[in-house]
Specification:
Keywords: Signal. With 478 residues, this protein is mainly β. It is built from five helices and 28 strands. The protein has two domains: 399 residues, no CATH class; 73 residues, Sandwich (Immunoglobulin-like). It is globular. 50% of the residues are buried.
Length: 478
């Protein structure tokens, strides 16, 4: 059972769960903590919101649906006829799809400034403005089931019990890569190597204990996001973790339905974090990760995994998206809180894990104003509405299909001297992404160069939304 942790005076800490297994009741208690100041700090925090900060409308847009005043008498478990697509009317056009050069704008280091870079392509669910999307027909009951909770910022400045507050992230420049050994959910995890060093920040640092211990690393050179959970560095430079996943920051890759990630919803953690650099810039251009205490055995896109702890039909599915109502007045909130609340009207919250109700997750930074963040507790769950999301997946209708078909995996030279460059090439059908292990890691395209120093067997992993295939080749070093 998860342990309930004490609440921080200014920022309540979530006794949130880290639910890896398929429908498993195994949980890890999570403590979201804070990281040291970034290596390259952006300009000092403005005392007033930047000029570009979206302002609160004095009246709600006429096109924005409003929450029904009376919930349905017989609550449906999901919309009877959800639309096949979710209409969006962004107040600001989304940024263009990232290119490899776009990743290079990020600074390096712990809590680094991304300088406007937003992970994933423009049509990613994380980047969709849902300010004018339809309200779910069962919104009233879904929100009522959450109860009388209010919003919480589960991140901030300073420390709690000597630990940083929030989930830290680190931006690196490619190699060195290291081996990741999984001890729980290796069959649902992406194999290494990953560019994680023994000094990479762990959630809960400097004394992470037995919490979720997320490690998030953004590879600026290759534009991949690496995430592992329940992570521990080993004495030989390798890492042990319960689960792990890689994500293509240029074009969000599909991982198999019903596979966990380092979140119960099968989602990446980093894209949903609230970060200081984007709040200081005056706008957040993505949905925000949130935890709820109870969820059912179901998920909606973009989630792909569940970890149910309730059978109530009004318990949230993983991936459920909630939007702050347009008519909720945010004009009196302090600067940092106002930027966050504006994002909640435009992009909303995505239910990503079991945990304390309405706890938003963010990255630690010593420039957060904890008083500003504490003001978010004035926003009740009833100020939100559930956005219509399309198909609700349950055990009866989860899509199934074939794993990628690897038709070839070859080397331009199978016998070489130590350190010689060898080009590995492959062909495969219906793959979402590739990993070559050891040495190479996540790769795009259909070839990669390796430099074996001893006789090495390389494995190509090809993964799509249904399963994973693999094929090996051995390079002999004389």
């Amino acid at each position: 059972m998860p342990r309930t942790l004490p609440m921080l005076a200014l920022i309540a800490l979530s006794a949130s769960t880290f639910s890896y297994g398929q429908g498993s009741n195994t949980r890890y208690t999570i403590v979201k903590l804070k990281a040291p100041a970034p290596v390259t700090p952006p300009p000092s925090t403005p005392t007033t919101p930047p000029a570009t900060t979206p302002t609160e409308p004095t009246t709600p847009p006429t096109t924005t649906p409003t929450e029904p005043t009376t919930p349905p008498a017989t609550p449906p478990t999901e919309p009877t006829s959800p639309p096949t697509t979710t209409p969006t009317e962004p107040t600001t056009p989304p940024a263009t799809t990232p290119t490899p050069s776009a990743c290079s704008v990020m600074d390096l280091g712990a809590g680094a400034n991304l300088n406007g870079f937003v992970p994933f392509q423009a049509n990613s669910a994380w980047r969709q403005n849902v300010a004018n999307a339809p309200v779910d027909g069962n919104s009233g009951n879904l929100i009522n089931f959450i109860g009388g909770s209010s919003l919480r910022a589960n991140f901030g400045s300073g420390t709690y019990d000597g630990n940083i507050i929030g989930i830290p992230y680190t931006v690196v420049s490619g190699s060195p890569f290291t081996t990741i050994n999984y001890n729980l959910y290796g069959d649902e995890s992406d194999p290494g190597p990953m560019p994680i060093s023994t000094s990479t920040l762990i959630e809960g640092a400097p004394n992470p204990g037995d919490g979720d211990r997320h490690v998030l690393v953004l590879d600026r050179d290759n534009c991949w996001l690496y995430e592992i959970g329940a992570a521990s560095p080993q004495g030989d430079g390798t890492w042990q973790a319960a689960a792990g996943a890689v994500w293509d920051m240029l074009n969000e890759n599909a991982r198999p339905f019903r596979w966990t990630s380092t979140d119960a919803a099968g989602l990446p953690v980093f894209p949903g974090l609230v970060r200081y650099d984007e709040v200081a810039a005056g706008h957040i251009d993505h949905a925000i990760r949130v935890t709820l205490s109870r969820s059912r055995q179901a998920f909606v896109a973009p989630a792909s995994h569940w970890a149910p702890n309730s059978s109530d039909p009004n318990a949230a599915p993983m991936g459920m998206r909630m939007r702050l109502k347009a008519n909720f007045d945010i004009s009196s909130f302090p600067p940092q809180a106002k930027v966050i609340l504006t994002a909640l009207k435009n992009y909303g919250l995505i239910n990503a894990d079991n945990g304390s109700n309405m706890f938003m997750i963010g990255a630690p930074d010593d420039r957060w104003n904890n008083d500003d963040l504490n003001s978010l507790k004035q926003v009740p769950a009833s100020a939100f509405e559930v956005v219509q999301s399309g198909t609700v997946y349950t055990p009866s209708n989860v899509p199934s299909g074939s794993a990628p078909n690897i038709t070839s995996f070859t080397a331009d030279n199978a016998t070489v001297s130590a350190g010689t460059a060898v080009t590995l090439s492959w062909a495969a059908d219906n793959a979402s992404y590739y990993i070559v292990s050891p040495e190479a890691g996540a790769v795009r395209g259909h070839s990669v160069t390796v430099h074996p120093t001893t006789t090495t067997t390389y494995t190509l992993y090809a993964t799509n939304q249904f399963d994973r295939s693999s094929k090996t080749i051995t390079i002999t070093v004389q």
